[in-house]
Amino acid sequence: MRNVGIVGVGHTKFGKSELPFIDMVCAAALEAMDDAGAKTGNKNVINQVFVGTMGAGMVSRISGIASAVVDTLNIRPAMAETIENGPASGASAIKLGYMAIASGMCDCVLVIGAEGMRAVSGWEGTDFVATMLHPESEYKYGLTLPAFAGLFTRLCMDQYGLESKDLSIVSVKNHANACKNPCAHIQAPVVLERITNKAYINATNPIVADPLRQYDMCPVSDGAAAVLLVAEDKKADLGFGDKKFVKIAGIGSATDTHVVANREVPSDLLAVRISAEMAYKMAGVGPDDIDVAELHDAFQILEIAESEEVGFFKRGEGHIAARNGETALTGKKPINTSGGLKAKGHPLGATGVSQVVELVRQLRGEAGERQIEGAKTGLAVNFGGFGNNVVSTVLTTK
Amino acid sequence: MEQMYAYQCTKCGKLHHPRYVVCQNPDCDGREFEKLPLDGKCKLLTWTRVYNLPEGYMCPWLNFGIVEFENGVRVTGQIGFDDEIVTGMELDATIGVVREKSILYKETVTAPQYGFIFQKA
């Protein structure tokens, strides 16, 4: 199979976007194209554009966004498709870009992930995300994604002795990392004492979905991120000869039951485990080879559970590793150096691409104050539904 | 009041909830199901209290739980009381209105929807 890698990355500042949706998507795309030196018009070499988005049609009221982007960027007649896989739409779009090049059908693919979440009210946003749940046995009841995260967290607490404070520890770490990421939505440090002290916890960190509190979950953000993929054997011919090539070494994706209650072990994230194993196998690496990881922490419990399912720590010990600082920038297994979904933000369709952008910056040595020295191999886990469709990606410069 | 059901594969006997199109037993390919009333005694596996509810719920919070019936079927539903909710407790699965109205493409549909509401056993 052909080697496929990334030669350009772009990332808007997550948060409340002042730009119209298409402009925000194109801003990320142009930054990635400029980073790689890709041209428009007659000099365009991009064969295909994939835009990963969950709700461009439903929330931003713009369907067929990929077609609109190709025209707006003047890279016609490039092929264009909009990809939807819930909050894992971004990583799925990258997977399809990889497949398009590896198959030989394309040599250069532009992948963008984007979401405009702040165009609607909070409840409309929450309701839109909840439409991923099973319509008859979950959504109908008023259940939401935070509700499932609450149910899942209590199971983990009962089984593994995880405490509310452990979630706060992960949150504080990710907020600290986001302060070093200019693209992050929330760039404010959080003090552990302020969000855990029992005397005023209900004021500073109120319960949202018991036992989850406000600092145990991500904010609502707009944002877009983009990567330019090329075939290694065509890199020089296409004009990217002098660009650093970050290889997509492995991709895995897996599904699990739609109905969360019907999982054999409801406290497991089976699709995370299977997708990571697939990605490791394809890349010829294991968890010990990963220097830096971006794990999908829409809820802080997910960073902990995923860190176990991808093999960094034993099942039930992820929170202990977090307590010991092993997942901090200075730890032996840094997780969510970007600030994670918790503080960088989680514009659904953008997240999977954003995670890969962060890994590319780390592997190129361009991550500034949050740089992990000598990072050569990274793992991204993008989590769709409540874990019923997960995409894992391994990148390397080795 | 509407009834809730377990759906039993007529080929292998596996019980399901909700309804499926194909039997979920990996060694079976059944597509026919018999409806068996599902309610009554069950055990609470996990629960949450949610304060940020979708539109249409005129209450400050709702409690949700996942329960397991004695026949092994697990379902998610609302918990109909607020005090002393404890994982592992025995509950009585009743059936009631779980959503008064829903929004379908900007149109509010007011047909109430029925589902599980768990009460103290």
Any descriptors?
heterodimer; A: 398 residues; alpha/beta; 9-stranded mixed beta sheet; two-stranded antiparallel ribbon; 13 helices; 11 strands; B: 121 residues; mainly beta; 3-stranded antiparallel beta sheet; 10 strands
Quick structural gist:
The complex is a heterodimer of chains A (398) and B (121). Chain A has 398 residues and is an alpha/beta fold. Chain A has helices at residues 21-36, 65-72, 89-102, 122-130, 145-160, 164-178, 192-196, 201-204, 270-283, 300-309, 318-323, 340-344, 348-364; strands spanning 4-11, 48-52, 79-83, 108-116, 207-209, 212-213, 222-231, 246-255, 292-295, 377-384, 389-396.
Reconstruct the topology from this structure.
The complex is a heterodimer of chains A (about 400) and B (about 120).
Chain A: E1 4-11, H1 21-36, E2 48-52, H2 65-72, E3 79-83, H3 89-102, E4 108-116, H4 122-130, H5 145-160, H6 164-178, H7 192-196, H8 201-204, E5 207-209, E6 212-213, E7 222-231, E8 246-255, H9 270-283, E9 292-295, H10 300-309, H11 318-323, H12 340-344, H13 348-364, E10 377-384, E11 389-396
Parallel strand pairs in A: 2-3, 2-4, 9-10
Antiparallel strand pairs in A: 1-7, 1-8, 4-7, 5-6, 8-11, 10-11
Helix pairs in contact in A: 3-13, 6-10
Chain B: E1 5-9, E2 15-16, E3 33-37, E4 40-50, E5 62-69, E6 74-79, E7 90-99, E8 102-104, E9 107-109, E10 113-120
Parallel strand pairs in B: 6-10
Antiparallel strand pairs in B: 1-2, 1-3, 4-5, 4-7, 5-6, 7-10, 8-9
